[in-house]
Amino acid sequence: MQVEIFQVDAFSDRPFAGNPAGVCVLDEPGDEAWMRDVASEMNLSETAFLHPEGAGWRLRWFTPTVEVDLCGHATLASAHVLWTERGVARDRPLAFATRSGVLGATPGEEDWIELDFPSEPAAPDDPPSALLEALGVDAVEAAGRNRMDWLLELPDETALRAVDPDFRALGRVDARGVAVTAPPGAATRRDHPGVDFVSRFFAPAAGVNEDPVTGSAHCALGPWWSERLGRATVLGRQVSRRGGLVRVIDRGSRVTIAGRAVTSLSGRIAGRRG
Predict the structure, then answer these.
(1) What SS3 class is residue 71?
(2) Please, what CATH class does the domain formed by 3-118+259-269 belong to?
(3) Any idea what DSSP says for residue 109?
């Protein structure tokens, strides 16, 4: 049986920017080995698989190599597909049951999608020398760690853009990945008014050397910059080659992560589901 699949560029308002995610909507749970094969075939940072469950949806995310506990851009892409491609009504929030609890999605203004995610603040910690060496970074302004990732603040955007990791060495660090962040430079402030911080995200241990735009990392980046800037709402730009904008509202134990999304292609998967 062939299954429809979509590729959605998340955290972008135009195709071929932001972070591409695969989205596969099933009638019933998929076979795990099949889902892993599809994610490997798609070769995107994440492919989402969802099916109806109760009054909501069960949602799982796979990189080309592993299943992950939390993914923002593929959740954003899943909500976009349900509303724009599968005819699901927008009159009430979507509820996704996941490995990180129930996540919500609500249509926002100007085609933004708002996600209700757990806050994942990074507790201050000293980064191991192996992490700094793998990144090629001599010193940081501050650093922290949450249950998934390291977060390192660099002095400026120039230093952030200069980071050139040794991905093999970085993949041996005990963490899903590492977010590096800094205040925006003059060019970013000019081209993207209102941006409060910039970031990059590396996760070679999860099969993704550099992720284009990482929603889940903003569960830490949002509270980090919210505290520094003294306000709940902050706007970040992830300065990968594709780039993307992520708005975060710090709500204590939860965060609202918002962005746009656009479908870039659709097709059908040949092969059995199990």
Answers:
(1) coil
(2) alpha beta
(3) G
* Per-residue pLDDT tens digits of the chain, which is 274 residues long: 679 999 999 999 999 999 999 999 999 999 999 999 999 999 999 999 999 999 999 999 999 999 999 999 999 999 999 999 999 998 889 999 999 999 999 999 889 999 999 999 999 999 999 999 999 998 899 999 999 999 999 999 999 999 999 999 999 999 999 999 999 999 999 999 999 999 999 999 999 999 999 999 999 999 999 999 999 999 999 999 999 999 999 999 999 999 999 999 999 998 766 5
Q: Quick one: how far is CA 143 from the chain centroid?
A: 20
CATH of 123-250, picked from 3.10.310.10, 3.20.20.70, 3.40.50.300, 3.30.1330.10, is 3.10.310.10
Q: What ranges in 14-71 are assigned the alpha helix state H?
A: 32-42
- From 4, 41, 46, 109, the catalytic residue: 46
| Rounded-to-integer distance, Cα 195 and Cα 213, Å | 15
What pTM was computed for the model? 0.93
* Fold match flag (3-118+259-269 vs 123-250): yes
CA distances 73 to 6, 27, 101, Å, are: 14, 22, 16
The label of the residue with tokens 């927008």 reads: 90
Which 3 state secondary structure label does DSSP give 143? strand
Q: Is 46 a catalytic residue?
A: yes
Q: Tokens 């430079």 — which residue?
A: 185
Assigned token pair, 89: 């009504």
